[in-house]
Amino acid sequence: MSEAAQKQMNPTASRPVRCIVKLGGAAITNKGELESIDEESLRSSCAQLRQAMSHSGAAEKVLGMDWSRRIGDPAEPVVDAESFSEMGGLGLDTNFVVVHGAGSFGHFQASRSGVHKGGLHSTLVKAGFVATRISVTSLNQEIVRALAKEGIPSVGMSPFACGWSTKQRNLVSANASQIIQSLHAGFVPVLHGDAVLDESLDCTILSGDVIIRHLAQLLSPKYVVFLTDVHGVYDRPPTDPNAVLLKEIEVDDNGSWSIVKPALQKGVEISVAAHDTTGGMETKILEAAAIARLGVDVYITKVGTEHSLRALKGDTSWEGWLGTVIRSSK
């Protein structure tokens, strides 16, 4: 257990957290284009999240919660106050936590300035810290907007603003009281990878994957879902025509992992994009393995597909499901 988790008091939640969802940066943004959102992937993700949360499971009238006005909008936002007043409740299981990656937001600013390496005595690093946070928090607002448009009562939360910090890039302070209080109040917290202060390095980048691992330790969700731009974890880069989808991975108590399905003759290659300051797929597998050791199943699958909807509902038993399940070997 991390030092931060040991410092954090154990919450007494009225209801267990059902799911922690990671919206991968590569899945919801266009990583080749600076600060560009993949609108269709984000919209479908939010629509599927609502469907997974719905008590009825059927399509319902959605009352949007984004009542703000964007610059250039021709009219005031429509607020259906009468319909909200007549509702007995939202009809949603809101016991979800959403964490999103940065994708084409933040990574450019962090890598150009070296924020992930630390050293706030450098004017470039200090400026990069500011620029990185402007970028990632702007993406967070857009994701909260998209969720709110689907009638999901979401609230954005930045790790830096909540006082999360690291030492040698390891979490040492991660107060989750605001997250827990928000869950109890019926909100869906939406966190993101962030630039944070570091006791040894001055500053660094805290990845969304590390955030999810800590929250899984603290909140003990029923399952965790990683939504990515590919169907799961492959034995080599998925662009390779010979790449094989790893359908089931088991993790031992010592943290070592083995491929259960399918049986492979060769080893597994893991590549990390040069601009990715958070470790790429290697970090995702290691963090997913750490979550699985807690006894929490992790589902990794492609965003905006029937497979992602099943994963969000916690139902991956379907024979035709495409994705990777990472679970404890116990």
UniProtKB/TrEMBL annotation:
One of its GO terms (cellular component) is cytosol. Keywords: ATP-binding, Kinase, Nucleotide-binding, Transferase. One of its GO terms (molecular function) is ATP binding. PANTHER family: GLUTAMATE 5-KINASE, ISOPENTENYL PHOSPHATE KINASE. It holds the Pfam family AA_kinase. It comes from Zizania palustris. One of its GO terms (biological process) is terpenoid biosynthetic process. It comes from the Eukaryota. This is Aspartate/glutamate/uridylate kinase domain-containing protein. Residues 93-301 form the Aspartate/glutamate/uridylate kinase domain. InterPro entries: Asp/Glu/Uridylate_kinase, Fosfomycin_R_FomA-type.
